Structure formats: C-alpha cells, structure tokens
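Quick note —
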Amino acid sequence: MKLKILRSHTRHLRVRDIERIMLGSEPFRTYGFDKKSCRKIINNNRKNEILIAKLKNDIVGFAIYETTFLNGYYLKLIAIDPSQRSIGIGNKLMTALENEILKKKKKVLYLCVTDFNRRAQKFYKKRGYKKVGRLTNYAKKGIDEFLMRKVFKT
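Predicted structure written out below.
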C-alpha cells in the first residue's frame, strides 16, 4: 500500500472527496450530514490545518485540526473512506498529527468521539487517549460526545 500523508489546508480538499468519505460513514449519517454540510466543512475550516491521506491519486481520508486550542491541538474531524477502513489509514493520520504536536512542543491533543461510536473509542484508548468529560446533547439532542485527550511528554 503506497499511502501518503500530506499536510495541507482545506482549500486542497475537494467537496466531492468530503462527500464521498463522510456521507458513506457513521456517525456522519446519524448526525444528518448532507452535501450542504460537507461544503460548510470546507468553508468553516479555512484557517485550520488538515492532513490528507492519499492512496495513489485518490484521497482516502483526512483529519482537520486546530493548532491553538488551550495548551495543545484539537482534532475537529477525522474521516476515512468506508471502502478503505481497517488498513491503517486512521492510524497513520493520527501518528502524523501526534508527530507534529511533538515537533511543535505542544503538550496535549483533544478530540471528541460520539458515545455510540465504540470502535473509535477503542481506537483512541489504544493510542493512549483518556476520557476527560462527557458533553451531553453536544451536537444533536440525544447524542453525547466524550471529550478525550492525550498528554505528550515534551
């Protein structure tokens, strides 16, 4: 597998790539994402950083993050093409992001994970993230988010 992780900005991410990846995925469908929501992601995140996972010439995943959140970074969104799951793309995106944090001498990475997304919770726990809070009805009534964080030794 010839996977490349590229550091970029959201302007390099095409709407059709976001739609293909997000609209085929949970929890995005449960949250009611549609094509309009996908366009908003690009427009609302122009100042944020992004890591893009490319397999050959296809975008197969991305992570959007803020670099000025408290004393660290905040992972706003990570999404992997449903047809490319379980082959290490999410792991490589997270490793690239964590390496950037260490390089910039930041101390913490925060993220939210949906209460029903047990697979993601297990993934983050395995990588050393700990639950530090619960956000009740955070983005949609009836769905909670867990705030998780990983503290790095700098």
